[in-house]
Design goal:
17 helices; Cyt_P450; Cytochrome p450; monooxygenase; EC 1.14.14.1; membrane; alpha+beta; single chain
Length: about 500
């Protein structure tokens, strides 16, 4: 057979197969734009700003619609009512986790973030319990965050009020907190191992938030064979996994079951207790990947939020001044902020809420999957179908938050200046897959930012009105633009 004829026949068969799969697989899935053979709806999605594309599509197809990435159907939930109905009212059915192709190559479906079923429930329960009860009568997590906040202030003092890019320093602080929880010890900010870990984490987040990563997630089979930054991501993930594995081996050699020092010790003790259990949730592999999940999420999400926060405080000096006034009134200058202070600082609390609402850190959340066939709003969603929940559509709802595109702490204050909470506040997602580290992240944001503003005035290099806070990437994570500022001692 002529090679050209064979090629044409092969492509034609693929196209026909694609059309057949689309038509036969839709069943009672929600309506959506007509997918093209092979590539699905990829041409109708701006990979640089997926949330914007979903917003436009929701105006045409409603709050629940179906997209195809390649030949894979994804049900999109847009708006508070649809997201809440799925994640909270039908929490068990929507508690599955769909894989992210670019991470699946290395992360596997174990640990906390990407596991499912019994493994996910057991490892998540154990991790939550360990984080809540951590300290075993010794140092609490709040003590560790306060200590790191003091170290952060000392590092910022070393800048001597000169312009600096805060990216690295703001990454070190939350990373050290999670290191003290997982590995027992914090690192010096100049430790070579620490510097390497920080560089790899920062690089991974930039890659995952890039348009290239979104393309990879649509065509993983093809891009596996092409050069690109995803290969750097794979190497970085391998490095972090191997680093944690070495720490686990060190812990085994010095483990005292009567005196657990950190998360790894607690997990090793649980492994010994469950050694006769046939469930096999408590394994070395699950330990390493659970620690990796805590390490990566506990570092980068808080670090990125802090970078957004300082940029917003630079751009809105009147807000910063009010926060510093409240800090001076409630805490003063001579003691460290503590979590008990937060209840007496409604304006600062509202600013923290508004920062997280405004920056919309995870625009489309991590992908969910339905755990069984689900009847949802008169549609039948087959078991295993991927679910995207648009957190942007909730956090930027213009009925709940007037002028959501404007940074305004008043979104979370009542007419008397008291904190006004909102069910629409979902930066950590909602339901059964809600972020394990939510309480730690909120503690870090409050203690780090109040400690910084207690000791420094923030000075911009340009007129605050000229500062650009538009994210430079809006894929998996919303990343702030690079900027410099001066930390002027109070």
């Amino acid at each position: 057979m002529d090679p050209v004829v064979a090629l044409v026949l092969g492509v034609s068969c693929l196209l026909l197969l694609s059309v057949w799969r689309h038509r036969s697989g839709r069943g009672e899935l929600p309506p959506g734009p007509t997918p093209l053979p092979i590539i699905g709806n990829i041409l109708q999605i701006d990979v640089k700003d997926i949330s914007k594309s979903l917003r436009h599509l929701s105006k045409v197809y409603g709050p629940v619609f179906t997209l195809y990435l390649g030949m894979k159907p994804i049900v999109v939930l847009h708006g508070y009512e649809a997201v809440k109905e799925a994640l909270v009212d039908h929490g068990e059915e929507f508690a599955g986790r769909d894989s992210i192709p670019i991470l699946k190559r290395r992360k596997k479906n174990i640990g906390i973030v990407f596991s499912n079923g019994k493994t996910w429930k057991e490892i998540r329960r154990f991790s939550l319990m360990t984080l809540r009860n951590f300290g075993m009568g010794k140092r609490s997590i709040e003590d560790r965050v306060q200590e790191e906040a003091r170290c952060l202030v000392e590092e910022l003092r070393k800048t001597n009020g000169s312009p600096c890019d805060p990216t690295f320093i703001l990454g070190c602080a939350p990373c050290n907190v999670i290191c003290s929880i997982i590995f027992k010890n914090r690192f010096d900010y100049q430790d070579p191992d620490f510097l390497t870990l920080m560089n790899k984490i920062n690089e991974n987040v930039r890659i995952l938030s890039s348009a290239w990563a979104q393309v990879y997630n649509n065509f993983p089979a093809l891009i596996d064979y092409l050069p690109g930054r995803h290969h750097i991501l794979f190497k970085n993930i391998d490095y972090i996994i191997n680093y944690i594995l070495e720490k686990v081996k060190e812990h085994e050699e010095s483990l005292d079951v009567n005196d657990p020092r950190d998360f790894i010790d607690c997990f090793l003790i649980k492994m010994a207790q469950e050694k006769d259990n046939q469930g096999l949730e408590y394994t070395y592999e699950n330990l390493v990947y659970a620690a990796s999940d805590l390490f990566n999420a506990g570092t980068e999400s808080t670090s990125t939020t802090l970078r957004h926060a300082l940029l917003l405080l630079l751009k809105h000096p009147q807000v910063t001044a009010k926060v510093q006034e409240e800090i001076q009134c409630v805490i003063g200058r001579h003691r460290s902020p503590c979590m008990q202070d937060r209840s007496r600082m409604p304006y600062t609390d509202a600013v923290l809420y508004e920062i997280q609402r405004y920056i919309d850190l995870l625009p489309v959340n991590l992908p969910h999957a339905v755990t069984c066939d689900v009847k949802f709003r008169n549609y039948l969603i087959p078991k295993g179908t991927a679910i995207w929940t648009s957190l942007t559509s909730v956090l930027h709802d213009n009925k709940e938050f007037p002028h959501p595109e404007i940074f305004d702490p008043g979104h979370f204050l009542d007419e008397h200046g008291n904190l006004k909470k909102s069910d629409y506040f979902m930066p950590f997602s909602s339901g059964k897959r809600m972020c394990v580290g939510e309480s730690l992240a909120r503690m870090e944001l409050f203690l780090f930012l109040t400690t910084i503003l207690q000791h420094f005035h923030l000075k911009s290099q340009v007129d605050p009105k000229e500062l650009n806070n538009t994210p430079i990437a809006n894929g998996l994570t919303s990343l702030p633009p690079l900027y410099k500022l001066c930390f002027i001692p109070v």
